[in-house]
Amino acid sequence: MRMAGKGWACAVLLAAGVVAVPASAQELSEMATRKFMEYAWSDLPEAFTKPTGETILIDKSKKSEVLVPLDVARDVIRVGRLSAHAQVCELAQDQSDNFNSLMRREIASKKWTPQQIVYIHRLHLMVVQLMTGRIKLVEKEGGKEVVVEEAARQTQTCTAEQKQKVKELIAAYVKTGPALAATAPPAAAAEAAAQSAGAPVQK
């Protein structure tokens, strides 16, 4: 994975240790949190069309109205890190439960506009893709360009002990949120479907 600039050193460190340290064991710094927030913002499209046909427009000139507070973003990134752990450990259902619990509790809070819900979804997705090696950053005319590596090789490994720890962390997180549907699809498929359809969350 090749990153652009020293400012993304935090992202490299997170990606390198995706299953080495449980997601709850480290508090993300303000600098690292803001880097991830900027990363997700730069990759946010101007419009999402949901399966219902409804289009959610993102006004990129009103950044402050779309981004969520720092503490909320930090929580979303923490959940995204845990989803990445689950993906590396091949815990598809646990990954799905983790993602769906995040989105259901944020929607249920009734704090966010549709645009902010889209941003929360994208922030989570970007953290997972970064930490599992599916995306990289390259320089382009002094700016940052996101490159999606669709067939990136999975280099991380997951021991039986790490796998069990990830399952426990996700179960504890899900338990504190809204009840989930009994037959939720794997998170990888849910995220891909949501991204391609422009839907911010699985219904």
Give a quick summary of the entry.
The protein is 52% helix and 9% strand. With 203 residues, the protein is mainly alpha-helical. A two-stranded antiparallel ribbon has the order 1-2. A two-stranded antiparallel ribbon has the order 3-4.
Low-confidence stretches: 1-25, 148-153, 183-203
- What is the mean predicted local confidence, pLDDT? 75
Structural class: mainly alpha
> What is the terminal separation in angstroms?
33 Å
Q: How many H/I helical runs?
A: 8
Shape category: globular
Helix share, percent: 40-55%
User: Radius of gyration, Cα only, in angstroms?
Assistant: 16 Å
Strand order of the largest sheet: 1-2
* Fraction in beta strands: 5-15%
Domain module tally: 1
Largest sheet: 2 strands, antiparallel
How many extended strands? 4
**Strand/helix succession:** HHEEHHHHEEHH
Task: Describe the protein in words.
The chain is mainly alpha-helical and 203 residues long. The protein has helices at 9-16, 30-42, 63-66, 70-88, 92-108, 114-131, 160-175, 187-197, and strands at residues 47-49, 55-57, 135-140, 143-148. It has one domain (6-17, 31-197). Mean pLDDT is 75; it is low at 1-25, 148-153 and 183-203.
What attributes characterize this protein structure?
4 strands, mainly alpha, 203 residues, two-stranded antiparallel ribbon, 9% strand
Question: Could you outline the blueprint of secondary structure elements for this entry?
Answer:
Blueprint: H1 9-16, H2 30-42, E1 47-49, E2 55-57, H3 63-66, H4 70-88, H5 92-108, H6 114-131, E3 135-140, E4 143-148, H7 160-175, H8 187-197
Antiparallel strand pairs: 1-2, 3-4
Helix pairs in contact: 2-4, 2-6, 4-5, 4-6, 4-7, 5-6, 5-7
